[in-house]
Amino acid sequence: MLELSILFPSVLNGLTTGAVYALIALGLTLIYGVLHIINFAHGAALMVALYGVYFLQQRAGIDPYVALPIMVPAMFAFGYALQRFVIGRASHGKDENILLVTLGISIILENLALYAFKSDTRSIDTAYTLTTVNLAGALISLPKVVAFGGALATAAVLLLVLGKTDLGRAIRACAKERQGARLVGIDVDHVFAMSFGIGLACLGAAACFLLPAYYVNPTVGNGFVLIAFTIVVLGGMGSFTGALVGGLLIGVVESVGGLWLGESLGQIGIFLIFIAVLLFRPQGLFGARS
Amino acid sequence: MLDVRGLSISFGGLKAVDEVSLAVPKGAIVGLIGPNGAGKSTLFGLVSGFLRPQQGSVHFLGQDITALAPHHICRIGMTRTFQIVQPFGAQTVRENIAVGAHLRRASRSEALDHAEKIATQVGLSSQLDKLALNLTVAGRKRLELARALATDPALLLLDEVLAGLNPQEITEVIPVIRQIRDAGVTVLMIEHVMQAVMNLAESVYVLSNGRLIAQGTPGEITANPEVIEAYLGHGTAARLRKAAGGQHA
Amino acid sequence: MKELAGILLFCALVALAPQFISSGVTLNLIIMTLYAALLGQAWNILGGFGGQFSFGHAVFFGSGAYAMAVLQVKFGWNAWAALAAALACGAAVGAFIGALSFRYGLKGSYFALVTLAFAEVFRILSNTFTFTGAGVGMMLPLKESTADLQFADKTGYLYLILAFVLAGLLVTWWLKRSRYGAWLQAVRDNEDSAAALGVNVFRVKLGAIMISGALMAAGGAFYVQLFHYIDPHIAYGPAVSVEALLGPIIGGMGTLWGPLLGAAVLHGMGELTRALMGDVPGVNLIAYGVVLILMVTFLPRGIIGLFHRKTKDAPRA
Question: Which segments of chain C does DSSP mark as H helices, in order?
């Protein structure tokens, strides 16, 4: 079959990509777990974040990793505003409406980018873009290794915030029982907006880790949306462990699949998994049966 | 007509329905009562195909219907209503009832005509063109009844069709149910409204914590101490007897 | 009866339009509006009447388009036969996706997601295999004759798309006054109640997705005949899926004229933005996105919802 010398780097690469996927999926699963929103705008928001990192580097010379403390709060504010003033108002609470509203937002964002930046694909060059790290014989590009570490670190921070802070407790309360949370004095609208903001903040971090090894164009979000959904559904809607494990798993599937079936067909494994999970185990690996 | 034998189902560790057996003879009105949470609606779900029992069987008109799907059971002749009414909100009363009528009528005009007839029978004829979501609670309950009736069932399973009605409305609906039976439809009804149970039912089953604790005529079960205890708490039966005994002394 | 007369009158008017309109640009606008309406009608059957929101309706469009292209180019089929096959293809894909999804009880957001996934799978497959031209796509050789379903004159295409739209209107009209339609709308409004009243929910949904798929495939087939070209992105990409749902949502889901009205509004808006801002890519889509959000927020029953408040003919929201 496949030699270990080819398989091993592929798996490692898959893990590094998977970690970033996991970070993206974490935001999505948080948003679903708390607000019960399937955020179709998640991919477009990531695209916006990627452009943010791109222009910070191009215009202000700020290195993507240094841009973290700028991008994360900026995306948080963006997410907060979106939920508080657009999604929350528009959906009247109905599931289908929320789907359509987030779809509308993704259309707007994508085409605003198309209008503003044209459809060119852009990438950045940094001092370390071409550096590789030797991991037990496999040569993995440095940005990817940093992405791996960064994504996991961000995930850890997120889990800490949710587990140990008052905000985290409030978020978990609203996720479990909206009315009850209101009754004990939690400003649910505010908490929802905070949650959405945190979800998008994850995208801000992910973008910082992603851009050095990747690229950006107006439609790049579409590709990520489905992968993110696959991970969230595979891991279990609302489960953080699931998003992490699922992300890493999908990253590896994509990488090994690409090895086996070629670049184009490789991604099909992801979507077939997605369909299979939706049909046969919709609660995913770690989710609760609804 | 309906023969339920040893039906059981558990959710998690909780036995929601515990080896319940009951029989509904043709042309009867049978009541099913019990405190909240006793498992009455769950039993309906098991009988009508919405839930699969883990033990036991359901026979209807001589046929084993235990594993059949709800729509199939409806076609054989058993129709149920829901405790929490679920109208087709954005459709009119007439259209709602017509969905039921369509079970045995392919023609749209026939179904709509039948819907009108049924509406008159339950007292909804003045609201035929109203949207279902604009009806009052009483109206929705009647709509629920009408829709089920429109399927021309042999057996009607009514789940708390009188809940939420005021006394005036209750006195209006009771004769309607009796007329339904007189027209040839057998009725099994879950009810909390004792007035209805006493007035209508010939035999009554009492469910508590998933188990059948009593069966008999309305008069018999209201005097049954276990039934009293199920509703009013442990020791109540004895206290009531003592009080009654003291009075007659 | 009134509605049937309305349908026939509308189609007669459109059919007569070329007598009075000589501008190719205007004719083209009418054709593209009708095309958008067709896509909307297809989506409306499953989404508006059936209550199952699909976000990947392109999967049916692309299947029809590729069936049309492959059968003619690779197998030398006659265009009309290929059209029949394309419709069957759409229905078959519908049956496949429907059987899987509805058998396993997928609803709401999960169903929307699975349709998205299927569209993406089909896109990847058509992008990979040379049989469908891979990433380059397929070109239909120019053969302007009615036998080949290609027309030198725009009016030919106008009649073709009008025929499809008429079919869509008639199917929708039938849904509003047939037993099957009553069952379908019952399933939309409350599945459990419908089942309790004897409706075979699975079969009803399956029927809807097949009809919807066939109609959508007609749109795909039309596209190929008009533009002589198809590729994976056009066939299965998000643009078609979005276009299919925008019209009914704006015009009014679950209504007869909603998709047409919505298509007209969208194209009208498209022309307006073009007039105001030039032919810049993406601008009209920004407007569409904004309108989508506004409609969902303020007019969830679409434009037609404005006219039918609480009367007998209230549309299904």
Answer: 2-20, 24-44, 58-73, 79-103, 108-128, 154-176, 179-189, 191-196, 201-227, 232-236, 238-251, 258-277, 283-298, 302-307
The letter for the amino acid at A72 is: V
Rounded to a whole number, what is the distance in Å from the CA of B244 to chain C's nearest CA? 46
What letter would DSSP give residue B6?
A: E
Q: What is the distance between the alpha carbons of residues A146 and A142, in angstroms, rounded to a whole number?
A: 6
Confidence of residue B227 (pLDDT cuts 50, 70, 90): confident
Q: Is residue A101 within 8 Å of residue C293, measured between CB atoms?
A: yes
The average pLDDT across A200-209 equals 92
Instruction: Give yes or no for B107 touching C (CB within 8 A).
Output: yes
Q: Can you tell me the distance from the alpha carbon of B83 to that of A19, in angstroms, rounded to the nearest whole number? A: 48
First to last CA, chain C: 23
CA–CA distance from C186 to each of B89, C106, C111, C113 (Å)?
10, 17, 18, 23
**A269 CB within 8 Å of a chain C CB:** no
Interface confidence (ipTM) of the complex: 0.89
Token readout for A97 is 């409406």
What Å distances lie between residue C221 and A92, C25, C62, C199, CA to CA? 38, 22, 9, 33
Tell me which chain B residues have a C-beta less than 8 angstroms from the C-beta of C176: none
Q: Does C194 touch chain B (CB under 8 A)?
A: yes
Q: What is the pLDDT of residues C221-254, one digit of tens each?
A: 999 999 999 999 999 988 899 999 999 999 999 9
Q: Reading across the β-sheet that carries B2-11, which strands appear in turn?
A: B14-24, B2-11, B55-60, B63-64
**Mean pLDDT, rounded, for B126-133:** 92
CB contact under 8 A, B107 and C201: no
Beta carbons within 10 angstroms of residue A12's beta carbon: 22
Four-point Cα dihedral B55, B58, B63, B69, nearest 10: -90
| C182 and chain B in contact, CB less than 8 A | yes
Residue with tokens 């000589």: C22
CB spacing of A38 vs C113 below 8 angstroms: yes
pLDDT (tens digit, 9 = 90+) per residue, B148-170? Answer: 999 999 999 999 999 888 888 88
Assigned token pair, C201 = 């929910």
In order, the DSSP letters of chain A are: ---HHHHHHHHHHHHHHHHHHHHHHHHHHHHHHHH----TTHHHHHHHHHHHHHHHHHHH---TTTTHHHHHHHHHHHHHHIIIIIIHHHHTT-HHHHHHHHHHHHHHHHHHHHHHHTT--B----TTTT-EEEETTEEEEHHHHHHHHHHHHHHHHHHHHHHHSHHHHHHHHHHH-HHHHHHTT--HHHHHHHHHHHHHHHHHHHHHHHGGGS-B-TTHHHHHHHHHHHHHHHH-TT-HHHHHHHHHHHHHHHHHHHHHHHHHHHTHHHHHHHHHHHHH-TTTTTPPP-
